Amino acid sequence: MGRELLCTVRWGDKTSSGNALLETNEIIFRGDLHLKVPLASLKSVSSRDGQLHLKWADGAAVFELGDHAEKWAHKILHPKSTVEKLGIKPGLVVSAVAMGEGNFVKDLRAGAKSFSDSKSLKDSDLIFVGAEKASDLARAAKLSASLGSAGGLWIVYPKGKQEIKEQQVLDAGKQAGLVDVKVVSFSATHTALKFVRPKAKR
Known about the structure:
Layout: E1 3-11, E2 14-22, E3 26-31, E4 34-38, E5 42-48, E6 51-56, E7 59-64, H1 69-77, H2 82-85, E8 93-97, H3 103-111, E9 114-116, E10 124-130, H4 139-144, E11 147-158, H5 166-175, E12 179-185, E13 190-196
Parallel strand pairs: 8-9, 8-10, 10-11
Antiparallel strand pairs: 1-2, 1-7, 2-3, 3-4, 5-6, 6-7, 11-13, 12-13
């Protein structure tokens, strides 16, 4: 769900054409060369003359991105917060189901026009539902009925766990009559997938 461009990369004494993909947590290049650089490992990021210059602890690379070089550098240096990525704004009707009692829920409560962590509110702008195992995904169908016409349902589930896989989350959203539109790294341990009603049904 990142930005992808055809480009040329110089890495050491090697040069390759291929696809560069800027994701939330890493930049990936696939061509004759293969690179995967975690953004957190970068020591230096700059753009000049259409080139994105990256340096990390044990390497450096130059991406020939043209007009996109400055945009990519800005995106890397000024990443959106989790709140921004999730589309959370003050004054929304927000429901949080099985999301625990942490700071995230407290922040939701503080900024919402209406908030519930015990049930889904009618015409919710955003619904967050926690799913720690596959059987928890059954909640999606019932919760989707409470979405406002342009509302979004976020399913938050563990990363890299056998108990629940991304395809199962996608299937649960589809079975609820929704379409997936966005994936976000919710935390170091969890991923969030956003679902909305198809445009024809809003």
